[in-house]
Amino acid sequence: MKTFKVALLAVIGVVIAFSSCSKYEEGPAISLLTKKARITGEWEVSDVIVNGTQLIDLSDFAGTMTFEKDGTGQYSQLGISIDIEWEFSEEKEALRTRSNFLGSWSDWTETEILKLENKEFWTTDTELGVTTEVHYTKI
Fold it and tell me: Which listed residue, of 12, 35, 110, 134, carries a Cα 20 to 30 Å from 93's Cα?
């Protein structure tokens, strides 16, 4: 009986530890893949939510983001591809990106990560009082 109580307390401790330490608001609470492994790949915009209202029918405007393990990638939309560089913020709570348009690199921009799973990725950004949440699905 004593062994059972010790095992039960250990399980409860692990559950509490992992449920309270999720880095991202929408999850996951735990993952066997690194953050870099989860974000690497090609992503398609699946939803855009502006100030809580979901935009509809993005098929004509949806773009794709490709993140390579080496911190490079591409953003493609409407037949135009732009080279990007990316990195996580120091605490890995945000994604920092910059783009190379016509041979000139932009300044780094930072977007908060809400969710980073292997097949689903959400970001949010507030600028000039407008909050934009973008949901991506891995292709």
Answer: 12
The tens digit of pLDDT for each residue in 43-77 reads: 998 888 999 988 876 666 678 999 999 999 999 98
Q: How does strand 94-101 pair with strand 104-105?
A: antiparallel
Ranges in the chain, pLDDT < 70: 1-23, 26-27, 29, 57-61
Q: Which domains does the chain have, with CATH numbers?
A: 32-138 (2.40.128.540)
* 3-state secondary structure at position 16: helix
Describe the chain by its helix, strand, coil percentages, rounded to 5. 15, 50, 35
d(CA 137, CA 98): 21
Query: What is the pTM for the complete model shown?
Result: 0.76
